[in-house]
Amino acid sequence: MRLDRFLSETTPLTRSLAKRALKNGEVTLNGEPIKQAATQVDTENDEVKLNGERLALVGLRYVMMHKPVDVECTARRGLYPRVIDIIDLPKVERLQPVGRLDVDTTGLLLLTDDGKWSHRVTSPRHRCAKVYIAELAEPMEGEAAQQAIEQVAEGILLEGEETPTQPATLRFITPQQAELTITEGRYHQVKRMFAALGNHVNALHRRSIGDVVLPDDLAPGEWRELTPEEIASF
Question: Which residues are tagged catalytic?
Fold first, then answer.
C-alpha cells in the first residue's frame, strides 16, 4: 500500500494532508524519515509512525446499537443526529447500517464496514428473522386478532406491491402491543403491514436480528462491539 494512502487510512488526514505531513518530515517508516508519498508499506510488518505515534490499519468492525428515537441511519447530515455521530470509533464514517430503522423507530441496529457480512444479514435469500414490538393505535383482540394472525401467516399484499409479504409470525402481547417476526426488509414493512390490517403503529421497537438480541442493559444511545459468536451467527 502507498504510504500516503496508509496515512489516510489510519489517521483523519486526507491524502493531500498526508503528503504535507510527509513533506514536513513528520512520518517515519521503520525508524527512518520518509518523504515520498509513493513509498510502499508492508501493512503486516512495517512500522509507520506519525509524530512518534505508531499507526495501524483499522480492521473490520461489527457494532450493535440501541438506537433511540430522533436519530437517523443516514450518512448525510440532516435534521436529526446520525447514528455514527454517537459511536466513538476511528474512521466511524465507514460503518454502514445493516438494514435501517426509521427516525422514530428504536431498538437493535447493527453496523459494519464488512460488506459481505452485511449482505448475509440483509439478503432476502437468507431469510434472517427480525423481531419487532409494535404499539398499536387501536386494540386488536378476539376474532379480529386471530384473523390478523392468520393473514400475516399467509402473507399480506401491501399497497403499491405486486407480491405479498413472506409468511410472518404475529403474536399479541396485549390488545395494543404486538410482536411481529418477519424475514424481509421492505420499505416501512411493519408499519405498512399493520396499516393493511386496518391499524396504525404508534411506536416501533426492534428487539432482535437473527440470534442477536438487544441486551436489556444496553440503554438507548449506547453501543458495543459484537462478540465473535454474534458475528459468526449469520
Answer: 102
Cα separation, 216 vs 167, whole angstroms? 28
Query: What's this model's pTM, rounded to 2 decimal places?
Result: 0.83
Residue type, 2: R
pLDDT per residue as tens digits for the range 150-188: 999 999 999 999 999 999 999 999 999 999 999 998 999
Q: How far is CA 56 from CA 132, 174, 224, in A?
A: 39, 52, 21
Backbone angles phi, psi at 231, to 5 degrees: -60, -45
3-state helix/strand/coil string of 47-115 = CEEECCEECCCCCCCEEEEEECCCCECCCCCCCCCEHHHCCCCCCHHHCEECCCCCCCEEEEEEEECCH
Residue 60's Cβ-side half-sphere holds a number of Cα atoms within 13 Å equal to: 12
